Every structure is written in structure tokens, then in C-alpha cells.
Amino acid sequence: MNDPIRGEAGGTAPVPLSVLDLATVGEGRTSRDALTASTRLAVLAERRGFARYWVAEHHSMPGVASSSPAVILAHLAAHTERIRLGSGGVMLPNHAPLVIAEQFGTLEALAPGRIDLGLGRAPGTDGATAAALRRTDRLREGAEDFPQQLTELTRFLDDDFPDGHPYARIHAVPGRVQSERQGRPPVWLLGSSGFSAQLAGRLGLPFAFAHHFSAANTLPALELYRESFRPSAVLDAPYALIGAAALAAEDEREAHRQVLTGALSMLRLRTGRPGLIPTPEEAEAYEFSAVERDFVDSWLGNVTYGTPDAVRDGLDALVKRTGADELMLTANAHSPEARVRSYELIADAYAL
């Protein structure tokens, strides 16, 4: 396997290309359809030389079927052999650190050397759903507790609580307590602002930034990460991955039809009306108000879409502008076929 942190660029890609999957569910489709497409896409990504395949945790969103990353990753591990699989990310405040250590220790045992543990500090949902996810005594815990939770999780993964610690006799199983030969998944910090960027830098961890929905913060966050970086046992230099929304189709009009479905879905989510991903026909027929049109235009301004060559040029420009070490591409569209086809076309454009 390649270095678990540093991917390997293939074909003519300037940096490694990876996949971020939300398992989106289109109108008239089911979660089964979305997850079946995810399996197809993971197999395709492995065959075409994408570096890694991550699944994002979201809750109470009808149009997103990725509420249980560890379950999905176990399934994908059974259908792939080489590609790195991981979470992009697990939302740490929603879970007890020991549970995450056990889940990802199990994944590491199932797919040795192929698992990444990406962690976020947001709930991946609204406040009411976040409360429903947590035990009663954890309702007041949140992002401010993230560093402490991260330390606890890391100690469970490494099985190295100091003597006298209340958890010193507790072990995450499967994990290192059983065998020193079992590795542990590398931890990545995810973020859409400066907090996780700075924390990742100080801890010497790889950092993944959500450019696809927080583009205005990308350059400041990456600069903060690089300025804050301290060499560690994990990395001797910063490694920054950015998530980028990208969709390719045979012609520009079809690409616009597909990305408009994702833009309308995001508009509804941001205005408290989450639902399934609308069809291209519904999105084209929707009568946007002036305010809604501004939102959609702004959203699409951060999506790289069009013909395969146009998408390749746009992604290359993004790498040049940000200095990213890796791009993780996400494609939100109504149909699974459009999503899978987009990655095929991008792989062709880069000769992967």
C-alpha cells in the first residue's frame, strides 16, 4: 500500500484525487439505490486509481443515506481490495470515543492498512437531532469539548492511558491490546473554519478542509494550518486535503442540469426544508426568488462542473490557488448514474 497519509497521484493529475460520498437519495429513488450506487462507485474509484474513498456522517436528512459511516465502510471493504476507505467524517461530539475506537479498530481488522479516521467537531445535523444522538449526561457537550474527546479517542486507539487513569484498564477491542501487529487508522481532522485547522497543525495531523461548502474560508484556514504546523510522529510536514464539489458530463448543459439539483436541495436544507434530491426537471422548472437565485448562483460558483476537460482545468486551477496536497471530489446529483458517470469522465480526463 501507499503511505496511509500521502496519496499517490496517478495519470496526469497534479495531486492525488479521492472521493467523498454522501450517498445522496434522489426523488423517486431509495436509500438502497443510493447505497448500491456507493458500492459501484467505490469499485470504480479503486479500479481507476483514486487514492481514497470517504463517507460523511449526516443525520435526519432524507436526501442523505450516510448516517452510519462505519457500517457503510465495512460493506465497502468487502467489495474492494486496495483503495483506502474512511470517514469524512465521523462527528466526534455525537459518539463516545470508546465506541469510535472499537468501530474503527474493527474496520482496521477487516481491512488492514486501508482505513482512515476523519473526525469533525460539528454534529452533522440540527440541534434537536444532535440532542437525540447523545446520552442525557452529554447533551451540553459540544464543539468546545472536541480537543479533550480527541485525546481520549487517540489514547483508546493507541491503548496507552497512563497508570492511574480511570480508563487505564479499559481497552478498545479489536485493537492494539490484542496484537501489536494490528495498526490503527490514521486520524485526520476535518473542518470548515480555523479551529480544526489550528488544532490539526499543533498536533501535526493531516487536515481536510470542506471547501465545497465553505469556500470563503479555504485560504485562511489552510494558511492557519500551515503556520500552526508542528512536526509529529505522524507527519514531518503539513498535508492538506480539500473537499471540492465537481461534476462532469458529456456537455456543459447536462452538467448544469445535474448540479442545479444539488443547489436546489442545499437551498431547501438551508431554509429548513430538507428532502430528497429533486429531479433535473423539477430544478429547472423551479421559480427562484431573487434571494434564492443569489444563493444558488453563489453555491454554483463554488462547484466545478462542465465537460471533462473543463472540470480538469478547474480542478487544476484550484490546486494551484490553494496549494492543496490532495483533492477529494464530491458530486451531488439526483441520479446515481450521473454521479458514477461523472467520476468516470474525470478519471478519463486525467488518464487515471
TrEMBL record:
<dbReference type="GO" id="GO:0016705">
    <property type="term" value="F:oxidoreductase activity, acting on paired donors, with incorporation or reduction of molecular oxygen"/>
</dbReference>
<dbReference type="GO" id="GO:0005829">
    <property type="term" value="C:cytosol"/>
</dbReference>
<feature type="domain" description="Luciferase-like">
    <location>
        <begin position="19"/>
        <end position="325"/>
    </location>
</feature>
<protein>
    <submittedName>
        <fullName>LLM class flavin-dependent oxidoreductase</fullName>
    </submittedName>
</protein>
<dbReference type="InterPro" id="IPR011251">
    <property type="entry name" value="Luciferase-like_dom"/>
</dbReference>
<comment type="similarity">
    <text>To bacterial alkanal monooxygenase alpha and beta chains.</text>
</comment>
<dbReference type="InterPro" id="IPR050766">
    <property type="entry name" value="Bact_Lucif_Oxidored"/>
</dbReference>
<dbReference type="Pfam" id="PF00296">
    <property type="entry name" value="Bac_luciferase"/>
</dbReference>
<dbReference type="InterPro" id="IPR036661">
    <property type="entry name" value="Luciferase-like_sf"/>
</dbReference>
<dbReference type="InterPro" id="IPR019949">
    <property type="entry name" value="CmoO-like"/>
</dbReference>
